[in-house]
Amino acid sequence: MQTLPPTLYNTAQIQELEQRLIHQRGISGFALMTKAGAAVFAQLHKKWRHARTVAVFCGAGNNAGDGYIAAALALSAGLSVDVYALVSPDVLKGDALTAYQHYRAAHGSVSTFSLGQPINADVIVDALFGTGLDRPVTGQYLAAIQAINDSASPVISVDLPSGLNANTGTVLSAAVKADCTVTFIGLKRGLLTGEAAEYCGDIIYASLDVPEEVFQDVQSTVYRVLPKTFPRRERCIHKSKNGHVLVIGGDRGYIGAVMLASEAALRVGAGLVSVATRKEHTGFISVHRPELMCHGVDNAEQLTSLLEKANVVVIGPGLGQSHWAKELLLAVIHSRKVSVIDADALNILAKIPAAHNNLLLTPYRSILTPHVGEAARLMNLPIAKIKEDRFTVVANVQKKYGGIAILKGAGTLIATADDIGVSTSGNPGMASGGMGDALCGVIAGLLAQGFSLKDAAQQGVYIHGKAADMAAMQDGERGLLASDLMPHLRRLVNH
Fold first, then answer.
1. Cβ count near 80 (within 10 Å)
2. How many whole angstroms separate alpha carbon 199 and alpha carbon 195?
3. Which of 146, 352, 357, 414 lies most in the core, judged by the most C-beta atoms within 10 Å?
């Protein structure tokens, strides 16, 4: 499988890259278009070698030009090609018009797409919209997207699936569900997060032979999270050097959450893990996992000595939102300990201004791990607004609360004050209870061993998702449990 480049770009940066190529490097727009169309056809031929008929849907911009080039190459290879135009080719301009003329010179024909028109093709090429789309899809374009999706034929999208926002990964009312997306020049950040996971299929990157120096001229602060090699342990190391994690939570009825978080911290290598929970839970936890040191706490005062011994704190798994929970969260924040704040601790944080303000007094010492619903409460926004632009939301959560903010979901985002990492490990089987608890334990376990906040957050998210991928590969996605990740977490940190 192809390795995608690490750096991700927004549409403005992609446009700047293209302009630098054209105006500073003397590479014509049509030359780039020709290479893009060739990359699409090459991938089409590779994936569907036995295809004999191709349907190409073309819009009005340069994306359509890429489609016409691919169509001309398909004709030259002896395939039967039907091009469906959403606008009259007469309105095409510049390089897109040249590409259309090139297709016509190869004796290609064009039909105007009409509602209800049957699509009979072995492969469909989606060249309707490019990166500039920023409004809901309507009219004939909407009908064309629906027709493509209703077809049983495989689909290859040009640059990105039409209807998908290249900056955010959100669907603009409707989008093509591609089996493969061939994207050019710079990897669009919207392809790797949010709803994009359902629409892009296999993502293939084609650089179009852009010189490396051009990328150095256009800086981006968004990038893919890549796995790092864990350092070898010293032969004479002592458990105290591997850190002490304190996991706080497990109100009545929620004992499982602290158990999952605590075991995950142990499985990634923390030297010691203590649990502060309701007194009635301690015996059961000790029997289930005797390596954990369990303590029943009724109030913040009883938490003091435990906080002093730990170098990393997790608070939130199964915490609830009772007076007990609020008191413990405030004690953690006042302790100034390096903390991973999750689940109900986030919901409390969203409600208590004093907790929020005190958290800001400890910059870069906390990691917040909200899912979409928790992020909505933290930012006092509707969930729909959170989904519209995950990059902006995670950056704003970080700015408001300090430290590092993680926005969980397909293409989890990890924001520092300076940049955003995108982790694409993980699978739909993770949509089950306890996964978030395991994640905060993984992150805390890495922090305890001396990882920086940034590395612990990024690598924690990555290996958590990778462990889920390994478990799903072994037994499938449905029925995947958070506890199924534990043996794979151990393998990953020893790889």
1. 14
2. 7
3. 414
